[in-house]
Amino acid sequence: MKLMLQIRILTALLLIAPAAMAQDDLGAIFGKDSVRRDPVIATFKSTRIINAQSNETLARGDLDFRVAHRFGDIGGANGGASTFFGIDNSTDIRIAFEYGITNRLTAGVSRAKGSGAFSQLYEVLGKFKLLQQTMDNRVPLAVTLFGNAVVTSMKSNTDKEAVNYFDKFSSRMTYTAQAVIARKFGDRFSLALLPSYVHRNKVGYMDMNDMFALGVGGRLRFSKRVALVVDYFVPFRDEASKDYYKTQGIEFFNPLGVGVEIETGGHVFHLNFTNSTATLENQFIPETTTSWLQGQFRWGFNISRRFSLGR
Amino acid sequence: MKQLLSLTTLLLLSAFNAAAQDVYSCRNATFRFFSSAPMEDIEATTKQGVSAINVKTKTVYFKVPINTFQFRKKLMQEHFNENYLESEKYPFAEFKGKVLDEVDLTKDGSYPVTVEGALNIHGVTKNYREKGTLTVKGGKINASAKFNVRVADHNIKIPTLVIKNIAEVVEVTVNADYQPVK
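Structure tokens for the assembled complex are given below, as produced in the milestone run.
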């Protein structure tokens, strides 16, 4: 009985074998789809989310020309109809050239008007892609390092007590070091965490030379070309400093940006609203003193135009 | 019983073996596509396609990982993968077809052939009948073909905003060198 069964199975096998060959599935000789270790692309559409850096760097030989503009307060004491909801004023304008030295390394220079005590800023920046998320999740996260150095070219204040009194050149310098830890969750949603450190050589009384902050940013794609972008920073300013500034009538707020990102081929256009008046990390992280709740948020736009220079 | 088993195994193996000798494969097939539009020409190439051909049954097979196509402009490459071909969702283009002509591919020679089969791009399968050339020489085979793909046929949507940059019909060139599968 048992033997009969075995014979039957074997006969069946023999019949199947030629049948399988006759079907001639040539694709089978290349095996199953090989494990895909390809890097995940386009976690963010641009090298910046709104105020925050994204994990993206430029491709080798690509030049990114960027303009960021922040208008004045829409509401509050300085907004409203008299300033055409802030359009009459600009709090910061940044013009930048960034270039992909390799696919992982980007370098850039920018000029920003600056907002707050320091203005007329020149920035040099570097960005390095340390880890790329892979499609097979062997590397679940993307990690990019960002750093910049900013110098103010403004005239020194003659008042020796002022923050912008520069007794030596180094007083003009501020720095940022940041890691962008990002992940693309499926097709539509990307998230980034940004542990950040800002160092300012010269700060006001009871202000902090060194400040840590944690940023979070996200992108949600509506369609192939339109996405919602958000970023938010929590600066870790100590209580004593906060309390002192409160007595001076200055309150610090966490910078929050909300925007719509529109991609049109080589352009990425952001229309956004932020309470931060500045565009550079060195300022918007430690020095945001304007609040969404008091109408002190503004229109802003980021425009990025990419040129492929390398071959 | 034991004898029966080994006999069967032998038969099975020989069945597979015989078939394998008719099969030629290529692991570095070249695919190039070219699109000419008013604003700019777009060109991309990959050498990471795979292909196989069975000289007995005259069946052919091609498969290309979409994200291996290299563009001159990396931003274009990103758009190609992200917006048009959606290579995360549809990682491969695949063709399964058959040579229609009465040719003996075990003999040396250059054969202009017509191949018919199903091409799957962007998750959409469409039947194609295209001309190509098969060259058999010293136990090796070369295949080359050039044909047009209408992007709309494969549900690849080009927004009106960039319609001047991307052609509606893309010219595809294929070249593969095959070795017998041992």
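Confidence is low (pLDDT under 50) at residues 18-23 of chain A. Residues 2-23 of chain A form the longest helix (22 residues). Further analysis is deferred to the final report.
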